[in-house]
């Protein structure tokens, strides 16, 4: 797919600058995103000069310069809500292109990071939580939102527009023709938000709650939310409520995520039995298997477990230990999903039954609850099927 | 590529049954093998009936039955040197096809595993270390070789032929037209043996030494080594010596393996500088990078580090911790390579310099030696380049 670069008018004097990135296979060098991702920057034209809010990833700098062109001559301010280079990566090229040394606004940490990332001499002004800056007919107001998703992060509220520019917060993966989230069905869009939020911000879920509470308590009227990824929200309540539910871990679907690894297929009959029993009980299943032919996307596993009612983890032992990829996935889930979701472990072992305790060690300190563990040597017996049924019956 | 199934005469009354497996993307559901793998079974025709040594992976059972056909009518013995299902996976189908209930020979653990893996009722006879069994004009002699690569493992020596059937031991990845290792250049074949051995048996390197010493001390004349994967050895000394060197960790090339992860390219200039400095000093480099577009094969990383003189690990921090994939790779190296190889760590951090101690914790208890750690925020300075030069100069 071609990458698309657009500049679209959102309101009087306000433009969305958006690139559709089909090149990134692994967002943050970690998350598989065949669905791609968009980076949104914003331009506000004021009587006193132009304001650029955030930017794009470095490889698209030149295209951003092309789209901005004349606007850069009169660039007065660059707001850096968040220094992660998917947003700040174009700043060096922009500063080199404009000779007028615009003021760069951000938190103290944003300033430090910009300098260390790009070794640039910038005209930086640190802004404080709640600070207001007037530029032409607009008032820019900044609120720090630490850990969403870095400690450097803030949002920018434009008082006269009642628009809030939130960078990573309320973002999503995916490439869309639409500009606004209300142009597509929420249920279709929701998986893209969930996947982005759980993978990128998952470890800081408690800060979602804190920061949303903080913003709500400001009592600001918000007419539009304009994030750094994904679509724009003309009905901010919808995304705020949804996002809050990810934060307080209350999103739950009638869905069971089944993850398993199988070196030679010995565990497969037990997993198939489990899957069928779950589906007979009216739950959807998502199955991720790690075999000699398939390796699932960790990004999808994280996203699907985030709103699951139950996790089944099928593990074949490896060298008398938990299978290495299962260890990796479990640590990722511990960091990114960490939620009061029950887990049933199903283990096929060769030399000895060691998995239960070792998995307990990996997820120690998380909110996950191992409710049962069914272990058998090689392939399962009828008796093991009964144990699986009993374990599931307690939960479904 | 088509999978090939061959039955080739190796000596009077002895046949190689070989399948070339192009279907397996991840051997053991772990190791990326675009080069494929071969499974070797062997048939000995004796005056008292046929002997089958090992077998193939389950998906190829039918093809194995086709190749064996008439031979199965008179199948007297199946030897299971090692129960891993890439060799034993065809046993159930073979037993169902032959009605004559052949004797299955293996160690006690092999018997237990066969029953639990395949839920089969077999005519199993446990053999002891050093035990001899006569069948027709041949004497089969068994020697246990525990942990090469499972605790169940043994080798079979046929006294009259002076041939040793070693299953996983002396095996390799790769698909070849040749039957014998001496038909191709050793230097070209060596990477396939190294990759197989380091990934599959790497964790049990000390057992390589123990078991080879044991076999050497038997004082047997060995005319040919016939492994379960890869090519056959008419010059056994060559592979025994090479294998021993992997075991006692004395294979070293004038080679430096550079592994790094880079979320946004900030660490790249430091890595490039390091690479060029190393090459200027006459060392080859192997570079594995984990970026938004590339993810290296862990199997190749393990193989290349196994005989490296130095490892450079470039790590960008992630959530104030070691980048998750770097953690995974480092634990895999700790388990599979674990060797007195010096490591230099190069770190680009954002929020804080935490990597050195955390990497030390991951590789704690291994033989790796962290000789230096160069940490910088964002991109490196000229001063950091000097530090890199100094660290390298001590080692190259």
Automatic annotation (TrEMBL), chains A, B:
<protein>
    <submittedName>
        <fullName>Putative flavoprotein</fullName>
    </submittedName>
</protein>
<dbReference type="GO" id="GO:0016491">
    <property type="term" value="F:oxidoreductase activity"/>
</dbReference>
<dbReference type="InterPro" id="IPR001279">
    <property type="entry name" value="Metallo-B-lactamas"/>
</dbReference>
<dbReference type="GO" id="GO:0010181">
    <property type="term" value="F:FMN binding"/>
</dbReference>
<dbReference type="GO" id="GO:0046872">
    <property type="term" value="F:metal ion binding"/>
</dbReference>
<dbReference type="InterPro" id="IPR029039">
    <property type="entry name" value="Flavoprotein-like_sf"/>
</dbReference>
<dbReference type="InterPro" id="IPR045761">
    <property type="entry name" value="ODP_dom"/>
</dbReference>
<dbReference type="InterPro" id="IPR016440">
    <property type="entry name" value="Rubredoxin-O_OxRdtase"/>
</dbReference>
<dbReference type="Pfam" id="PF19583">
    <property type="entry name" value="ODP"/>
</dbReference>
<feature type="domain" description="Metallo-beta-lactamase">
    <location>
        <begin position="38"/>
        <end position="229"/>
    </location>
</feature>
<dbReference type="InterPro" id="IPR036866">
    <property type="entry name" value="RibonucZ/Hydroxyglut_hydro"/>
</dbReference>
<dbReference type="GO" id="GO:0009055">
    <property type="term" value="F:electron transfer activity"/>
</dbReference>
